[in-house]
């Protein structure tokens, strides 16, 4: 067992089991018990990794009128009407170049553009006044009608 390190009125005691870490202050105040601390950490991690559940999706449809591919690999696809889109940015959707599925998504977009077939899109609504974005979760999709 490690001897306590004292700083002012606080001392830190480490037991053999790292999960039994306790922080004590003068007056007998004790931090959250281990089980509650672990539960709080798990809840925080769950919220962090559940972006998909917290994201607001918007649906749109239409026939593609333009496709812009930027130097960083990002793609902007126009001609799609998102009735619940934010501001005036409801006429297109965005695919980040960092999306690992960019090649499949771009192939779908270009096939629909070449055939002049309408598509349906479900994309993540973005904050501010920017176009809906295709993410990497199952809530976002591009479907040829």
Care to give the gist of this entry?
This protein has 145 residues and is an alpha+beta fold. Helix content is 23%, strand content 30%.
Q: Would you write up a description of this structure?
A:
The protein is of the alpha+beta class. It folds into 2 domains: 45 residues, no CATH class; 92 residues, OB fold (Dihydrolipoamide Acetyltransferase, E2P) (Beta Barrel). The protein is 23% helix and 30% strand. It has 3 helices and 8 strands. Strands 6-5-4-7-8 form a 5-stranded antiparallel sheet, with helices on one face. The chain has a 3-stranded antiparallel sheet with strand order 1-2-3, with no helix packed on it. It is globular, with a radius of gyration of 25 Å.
Blueprint (SSEs and pairs):
Layout: E1 5-7, E2 10-13, E3 22-24, H1 34-49, H2 51-54, E4 57-69, E5 75-81, E6 92-95, H3 102-115, E7 119-124, E8 141-144
Antiparallel strand pairs: 1-2, 2-3, 4-5, 4-7, 5-6, 7-8
| Overall number of strands | 8
> What's the overall geometry?
globular
CATH architecture of the largest domain: Beta Barrel
Runs with pLDDT <50, length 5+?
1-29, 47-54
Number of domains: 2
Quaternary state reads single chain
Radius of gyration: 25 Å
CATH class of the largest domain: Mainly Beta
Please, what is the average pLDDT? 74
- What is the helix tally? 3
> Sheet bearing the most strands, described?
5 strands, antiparallel
- Report helical residue fraction: 10-25%
Strand order of the largest sheet: 6-5-4-7-8
Q: What is the CATH topology classification name of the largest domain?
A: OB fold (Dihydrolipoamide Acetyltransferase, E2P)
What class, by secondary structure content? alpha+beta
